Amino acid sequence: MAIVIGIESTAHTFGVGVVRNGEILSNVKRVYTTEKGGIIPVEAARHHFNNKEEVYFEALDGAGIEEKDIDAVAFSQGPGLPPCLLEGMNFAKELSQKLKKPIAPVNHCIAHLEVGRITGAKDPVMLYVSGANTQIIAYASGKYRVFGETLDIGVGNFIDNFARYIGIGFPGGPAIQKLAEKGKNYVEIPYKVKGMDVALSGILTNLKHKAEKGYSLYDLAYSMQETVFAMLVETAERALAHTGKKELLLGGGVACNSRLQEMCRIMCKERKTGKVRFFCPPKSLLTDNGAMIAYLGEIMLNNERCMKYSPKQLRMVDIKPRQRTDEVEVRWK
Ligand code: ATP
Ligand code: FE2
To answer: Please, which residues have CB within 8 angstroms of residue 160's CB and are 6 or more apart in sequence?
Structure first.
């Protein structure tokens, strides 16, 4: 396959990426943000609708290609917010029809994982920490298996929710990281690892109470990061021990956090029972983006066992708002 474009629209980001033979030629995005309060799905979808043409042509320009050079279109099929997913899929279908090229539906979570290959990771345990998802994933016999996950909310949503409570808009993660860097005193916060899973909603309530009581927001942000990231690192380490894999890969927007990266790096280095290499893609590929969709799309399009659809079969293609990582048949491996 020569040139594949990927369209991302599962939540706050509308992105278009262009990939040729595993090389990312461009990766353009617009992110829906708020001053205060969280994402309103129909507003995010409107944001995508209003930005799609501009993002698309900017991505083509950035890649130095024209529309006629495109060989296939990949899009994020799910999981995600239905109004947002629909914008991406409809745009992908329009392009498929206009250019008379096949379309490949891609799972968003697995795209976060597969794009990690550009770091050199071959068969990692992945700590996937994003807005809606928090999972420890590894490949085993035909599927990406979930070894551990959040029992309630995703760590990104957890951080954003706390941020919102203290008056910070979306996304809250980067602002909370800045506050945490100024925190000096560790405040005791519940540590909730249950088997291979983590629970975050009780911690959120606890943090909100402490904020109400007038604890320093710097100290709370710092203590939150130290506690919750330690929970994530602990479960990731257990998955490494269980699977015997020798690589840890970070992915998802929360992986932009430099303290989380540092804690993962230390864990990998300090493991006594065999070395583990640590990998983390650049920021532009950690938060939602079109390049990761194009990247996995190309892999799928190159494999005859993977599903793809001609412009005549577009009626068979739909969004999957609740698709789970371990439902996806990984036919390209
Ligand atoms: P999903 O992949 O589950 O659909 P998503 O698409 O909402 O989630 P991403 O773009 O992968 O999410 O990640 C967005 C999240 O990353 C937001 O919750 C944001 O606050 C968080 N985030 C971004 N930068 C940082 C940071 N430096 N520290 C912590 N969190 C961060
Ligand atoms: Fe994501």
So the answer is: 38, 131, 170, 171, 172, 173
Which ligand is the nearest neighbour of the Cα of 12? 1
Any ligand 1 atom below 6 A from CB of 281: no
The pTM of this model reads: 0.94
CATH fit for domain 3-112+286-327, picks 3.20.20.140, 3.40.50.740, 3.30.420.40, 3.40.640.10: 3.30.420.40
Strand order across the 134-140 sheet: 143-149, 134-140, 125-129, 247-251, 277-279
Token pair 């024209």: residue: 66
Pocket mutation for ligand 1, best pick of 30, 126, 287, 322 (most atoms within 8 Å of C-beta): 287
Distances (CA, A) of 220 to 130, 170, 193, 207: 21, 19, 20, 7
Mutate to test the pocket of ligand 1, among 113, 150, 254 (most ligand atoms within 8 A of CB): 254
Angle between helices 217-243 and 258-270 (to 10 degrees): 40
Is the pLDDT assigned to residue 37 strictly greater than 80?
no
Domain boundaries, the chain: 3-112+286-327, 122-283
CA-based radius of gyration for the chain: 20
122 CA distance to ligand 1 middle (Å): 24
User: Which atom of ligand 1 is the closest one to the Cα of 163?
Assistant: 20
Distance, in Å, from the CA atom of 249 to the CA atom of 111, rounded to the nearest integer, reads 13
Q: Given this model, what pLDDT does residue 183 score? A: 97
Fold adopted by 122-283: Nucleotidyltransferase; domain 5 (3.30.420)
For the segment 29-57, the average pLDDT, to the nearest whole number, is 93
User: Which ligand is nearest the CA of 85, by number?
Assistant: 1
